[in-house]
């Protein structure tokens, strides 16, 4: 048996030196010390030895087992070390190389236009006012001279939550809320940018879009003041050579009311595809605040007058940057946004 033990030892240690992978190491361990391994089979023959030889052989076998396990652990650590060194070589980073360029973010064109509008009007002494996007029927319609049965309500295709609660269709409710808050102080001079909601969705409309409302209430405010202010705004936004014209229109909360056109920034008024040959492009609606709206805001229409205007930010952005489909503004396509 001694010779068999010595042979197992020599054969195993020799094979250990020839192994090239941890898988081969595991296979060798099973062949020697597994349930059917050579060393295990030898142990099963211990019962055939005499009582005197059995303890001696048992000690020799245990010493061999310990020696082989130490050899396997050493070989295993060697394989682990080699694997780590190989991985480090493969994943080595050359720190002298330039870094990877990451795509840069860009400010959204709507954000740029809103900030530009705010800067223009703040430069003329206006302050920014805000109001809730979930609004009451009273502030969104009734206080703006649109009673329950008014036909102009149908033009706005409202998202109603309840009979009296809705998603605001315009930022005009901020005008009433601001007048109520400031009365009887003068002047009331605000712009109200924000999201509004209407049940509409196509290339030039979105169910959620942005508006900027403007309001000026004071003593002696005239229509000519409104025209001068909008002319200044148009030239700041679209270029110093722009002209505007006011066309009679109807809005329940202003009287008189007007649609405001700007001379085409592409053809300068000569007529082209953008302005459909007219030389003019509609940009906003405006007018003198209706006396009833002044009363609902807490001001006496016999003592003060005012004007109001409202513009769609998406329309301003599309005209300013030559965007033909409003849906591009909401697609979050990095290729589109990179242009701004």
Which short descriptors sum up this protein?
340 residues, alpha+beta, BirA Bifunctional Protein, domain 2, seven-stranded mixed sheet, two-stranded antiparallel ribbon, 11 helices
Q: Brief overview, please?
A:
The chain has 340 residues and is of the alpha+beta class. The chain contains eleven helices and nine strands. It folds into two domains: 2-90; 109-337, Bira Bifunctional Protein, Domain 2 (BirA Bifunctional Protein, domain 2).
What does this 3D model show about the protein?
- By secondary structure, the protein is an alpha+beta fold.
- The protein folds into 2 domains: 2-90; 109-337, BirA Bifunctional Protein, domain 2.
- It contains 11 helices and 9 strands.
- It has helices at 2-18, 22-33, 38-44, 53-90, 109-122, 137-140, 173-182, 223-238, 291-296, 313-321, 334-337; strands at 127-128, 134-136, 165-167, 188-197, 208-218, 244-251, 254-263, 280-289, 305-312.
- It has a 7-stranded mixed sheet with strand order 1-4-5-9-8-7-6. A two-stranded antiparallel ribbon has the order 2-3.
- A hairpin with a 2-residue loop joins strand 6 and strand 7 (254-263).
- The chain is elongated.
- It starts with a helix and ends with a helix.
């Amino acid at each position: 048996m001694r010779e068999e033990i010595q042979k197992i030892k020599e054969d195993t240690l020799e094979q250990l030196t020839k192994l090239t992978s941890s898988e081969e190491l595991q296979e060798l361990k099973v062949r020697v010390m597994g349930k059917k391994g050579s060393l295990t089979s030898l142990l099963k023959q211990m019962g055939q030895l005499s009582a005197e030889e059995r303890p001696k052989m048992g000690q020799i076998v245990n010493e061999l087992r310990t020696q082989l396990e130490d050899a396997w652990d050493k070989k295993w650590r060697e394989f682990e070390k080699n694997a780590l060194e190989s991985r480090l070589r493969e994943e080595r980073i050359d720190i002298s190389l330039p870094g990877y360029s990451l795509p840069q973010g860009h400010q959204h064109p709507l954000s740029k236009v809103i900030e530009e509008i705010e800067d223009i009007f703040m430069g003329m002494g206006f302050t920014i006012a805000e109001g809730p996007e979930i609004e009451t029927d009273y502030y969104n319609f009734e206080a703006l001279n649109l009673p329950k049965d008014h036909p102009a309500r149908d033009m706005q295709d409202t998202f109603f939550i309840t009979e009296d609660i809705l998603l605001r269709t315009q930022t005009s409710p901020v005008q009433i809320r601001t007048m109520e808050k400031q009365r009887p102080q003068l002047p009331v001079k605000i712009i109200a940018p924000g999201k509004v909601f209407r049940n509409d969705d196509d290339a030039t409309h979105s169910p959620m879009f942005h508006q900027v409302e403007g309001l000026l209430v004071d003593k002696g405010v005239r229509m000519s003041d409104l025209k001068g202010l909008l002319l200044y705004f148009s030239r700041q936004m679209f270029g110093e050579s722009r002209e505007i014209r006011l066309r009679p229109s109807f809005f329940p909360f202003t009287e008189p009311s007007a649609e405001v056109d700007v001379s085409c920034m592409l053809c300068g008024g000569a007529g082209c595809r953008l302005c459909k040959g007219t030389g003019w492009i509609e940009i906003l609606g405006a007018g003198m605040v209706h006396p009833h709206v002044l009363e609902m805001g807490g001001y006496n229409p016999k003592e003060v007058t005012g004007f109001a205007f409202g513009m769609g930010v998406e329309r301003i952005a599309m005209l300013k940057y030559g965007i033909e489909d409003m849906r591009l503004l909401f697609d979050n396509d990095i290729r589109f946004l990179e242009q701004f």
